[in-house]
C-alpha cells in the first residue's frame, strides 16, 4: 500500500533540469531534497496535534468516536484506495464508491488517482528503482522517507490508470482533493463531536489530527513492515512478507506475501482465523448489495504456489546433505580387481554393482562385525536386501556415503545396467542435484531377495 498526503509533481518546464533527487545531498543543499509540503502534513501537523492534546482533555465519547472514525478512514484506504481502485479486486456501486472516496480522503494520504498509480508501480516494479517505496532503500525510506524526501517522478515505473480516469468518482475526488481532505479529515470529525456532545476542540484534535496521524502511520506500515517482517509462504524472490502484527496494525493488509502473489484477490487473509477486517467489510458490503464481482483465486492456484515454495526450501535443505558421490562420477572397477583388493584387507563390499568401502564402519555395524565381514569381496546385493537382513532406508542412505566405485563385467552387469537406468530416471531439483526419495537408493531392491540359506 502506498500513501501520500500530497504530491508535488514538477511541471513540464522543470524536467529539463537535473532533478534534485538525482543530485548528491550536501550540507548546503539538503533542504532542497526535502519535500516540505509532505513534511508538514506527515510530521508537522501530528506534532502540533500532540502539543494541543496537552491542553485539551480527552473525553470518553470523543475517544470512542476517534477510534470509530479511525476504522472508517482506514477502511477507506484499504477497502477503497487499495483493493477497489488500485487492484480492482471487486466492483462497488456508486454510493459505496462515493463513501470510500470520502472516508479515504479523510485519511489524508493523497488522492485515489495518485495513490493507486504509485501502488500499481509498487506491484509492477517491487524492490527495484522504479518501485516508489522500495524497501531495498531501507525500512525508514519505505515507511516515510519516500514521502518526506523529494523523488524524481520520472523514475517511478509507468502504469496504466485509464480505468481510474474513467471513474467519475475518482476524477471528482482528484479535482476536489483539498476540499475533501479538509472536510473529511478535520471538519467532519470535529462536527460530530461538537454537535454530538459539545467537544469541538477535542473532536478536532483527537478524531481529527491525531487520528489522521495514526491512520497514516498504520497504512505506511504496509510499505515498510509488510516488506520486512514475517514469512514468505508463496514466493521468497521478492521482499513481501506475511505477519499477524502487520495485519493487526493495517486492518488486515499484513498477509502481504499472499497479496503480492495474488493482488487481484479481494482477500489478504485466506484462512478464516486470520485477521482481515477489510475482507470482512467487503464481504458484508456484498451481502448488503453494495459490492459485487468479488475476485478470488482458485485454491488450486494458491496451493501450487505454496507447494513450490516449500519445494524450494526442501531443495535448499537437501543440497546441504551428503548423498555420496554420484554414480556417474565413480571410477569403474573390474570385478577381479574388486575381489583382489578385498582379499588384501580393504573393507570393500559390492551391493547392486556399487562398491562401498566400509573399512571404518565394520566395528559400528549394528548387525555385528561377522555379518558385514562375510560380505566383503562378494556380491552382497541379496544379503543386504533380505537374504540376511532387509536393510532400512536409513541403512541404504548411509551406505551411499561410502561409495568408492562401480563394477564392470561379470555377473554384476545386469544389476549395474538397471542401476544406470534408474540413475537416468532420477528427478533433479532446480540446482541440478539428484532427488533420492526414501526407498529409492540404487542399492535398494524393490522386493526382499530370499536366499536358500536365509533364516
Ligand atoms: Zn497492493
Ligand atoms: Zn507491497
UniProtKB/TrEMBL annotation:
Give the chief site where it resides. membrane
Q: What does this protein do?
A: Stearoyl-CoA desaturase that utilizes O(2) and electrons from reduced cytochrome b5 to introduce the first double bond into saturated fatty acyl-CoA substrates.
**Highest taxon of the source?**
Eukaryota
Which named protein is this? Acyl-CoA desaturase
| Cofactors that this protein relies on | Fe(2+)
Looking at the record, the residues that make up the Cytochrome b5 heme-binding domain are: 330-408
Q: Does this entry carry the keyword Membrane?
A: yes
Report the subcellular localization. Answer: Membrane
Q: Which family does it belong to?
A: Belongs to the fatty acid desaturase type 1 family.
Topological category with respect to the lipid bilayer: Multi-pass membrane protein
Query: From the UniProt record, which GO molecular function terms apply?
Result: heme binding; iron ion binding; stearoyl-CoA 9-desaturase activity
| BP terms from Gene Ontology | unsaturated fatty acid biosynthetic process
> Which UniProt key words apply to this protein?
Electron transport, Fatty acid biosynthesis, Fatty acid metabolism, Heme, Iron, Lipid biosynthesis, Lipid metabolism, Membrane, Metal-binding, Oxidoreductase, Transmembrane, Transmembrane helix, Transport
Family matches, as Pfam families:
Cyt-b5 (PF00173), FA_desaturase (PF00487)
Residue ranges crossing the lipid bilayer per the database entry: 36-56, 63-84, 177-198
| UniProt cross-references to Gene3D superfamilies, sorted A to Z | Cytochrome b5-like heme/steroid binding domain (3.10.120.10)
Reactions that this protein is recorded to catalyse:
octadecanoyl-CoA + 2 Fe(II)-[cytochrome b5] + O2 + 2 H(+) = (9Z)-octadecenoyl-CoA + 2 Fe(III)-[cytochrome b5] + 2 H2O
First-tier enzyme category under EC: oxidoreductase
GO CC annotations? endoplasmic reticulum membrane
Q: What is its EC number?
A: 1.14.19.1
Q: PROSITE patterns, from UniProt?
A: CYTOCHROME_B5_1, CYTOCHROME_B5_2, FATTY_ACID_DESATUR_1
The cofactor binding remark recorded in the entry reads: Expected to bind 2 Fe(2+) ions per subunit.
